[in-house]
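User: I'm curious whether this sequence folds into something compact or stays loose and floppy. Could you predict its structure so I can see for myself?
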Amino acid sequence: LHTHLPILEPASIQEAKDYTARAFELSEIYNLPVIVNAPSKLCHNIGSLRLGNLPNVFPVKGRFERNPERYINLFAGSVANHRRAMEAVKRLQGETPSLGLNRVLPGSGRTGFISSGINYLYLLEALSLLGIADAPILKITMSYPLNPDEIASFTKHLDRVYVVEDLEGFVEFQAKRLLYDAGIRVPIIGKEVFPAHGELDVDLIAERLSEELRTPLPKRTTRAIKLSNELTGDLPPRQGAFCTGCPHRATLYSIVKATDRNTIFAGDIGCYTLSCLPPFRAFDWVTCMNCGVGIAQGMLQKIEGENVIAYVGDSTFFHSGIPGLINAVQQNASLVLIILDNKWVAMTGHQPSPTTDIALDGTRMHPVDIKGLLKSIGVSYVRTIKPFNIKASMAAIKEAIRVGKGVRVIIAEEECALQYGRRVARTPVEYEVYYQIDEGRCQKCNECYIELGCPAIRKEETTGGWRYYIEEATCLRCGACHDLCLNSAILRTEIRRTAGMESL
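Assistant: Here's the prediction. I'll summarize afterward.
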């Protein structure tokens, strides 16, 4: 509320696309930034999408128009801009009904519902489960600012209204305030029923409304919930894991083996955040981007005799990691920083990072030299490792810890396996590599299966007992298992291409 920025809340993939375009339109009309609030459950989803047509006039080039009253937010100018923003929001609030964003699903019932975003769809399904078909529902698309007339018109003939929304009662608070000012005393019920933490879902909404409305859930639903609870205890837990062939898996394996976990692990945001999970458990905190080096420096003011290893990915490093590292150098902080450079912004969709050197189509790019950058800000100890070379990586990490003073940086440099695989599929390499486990040599020491935790290494029962094997369709040929095997039980086969093989 304190930002006074309009907020649009899409309920579906189609709405996410449509309201993004609408947000730009509203921003131009009202001269305000507009937020499109898409929750994680909507972002991590798939569905049909109709793109529609682009505008007939789509300006590509433009020119800068000097406007100091708007762009220089100092002194009286900031006060004037604040006033203009408040006036624009007030204008938008008054014109909201004409925009056609919020809509009412009419019903003859005396209990109404207000919801927004994906929770609106959850609410519809929950009411269907409860057999409630006559409830009036106000679907909120613009959750700020709410129009007082829309809220009053919807609620004035109802006995009570439930607001179904995630987290704190954002819509609920606005609705209560607007109705109070309008002299309407309809009970607005929200966070008394629905939790202010976590995300809502169909089951939770149906369960809470069943209790509130004294409407029992159908037997098929209660039986499904009972069976689900019973089976949950018997099913193996499913947790996040690094992709097959991910260089971060090899780097974390080397860190754990080099330190025996006898160190403090300063975590950060990225794919490598998964190292807080088994089998590595090599994260002691993670809160935000650059929290690794940042928090580590504060901790070093108090601890004695303990080593600190901080992580940061190449993308996070360039986004917000450099200032923290400069401070660590200036203060001569005693820590090891491992930069996990996989050449892409892998966690959010494989956008190029400043270190991307080859595009998917094979085009050479102009990457930033991390080592040169580190030297320029005063880091004197810089080493580069190749994560899939396990033994050399472990030795480099042990050596950095042994030095014991000042900032020491190790760059774990290896391209994201997914992007590498996509490029190779377009332009095949000169040779192919395959790995297999020799059952005669394998001592079943679990180093590759449990300690490394590679998803391509499988366990199966045979007539002669159980064995480990490498699933060829899953293996991305990174070679980490081959390098770490103490018994030389993982064999490497190389098949080189010759003239004419491309057509096979």
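Summary: The first strand starts at residue 7 and ends at 8. The radius of gyration is 29 Å.
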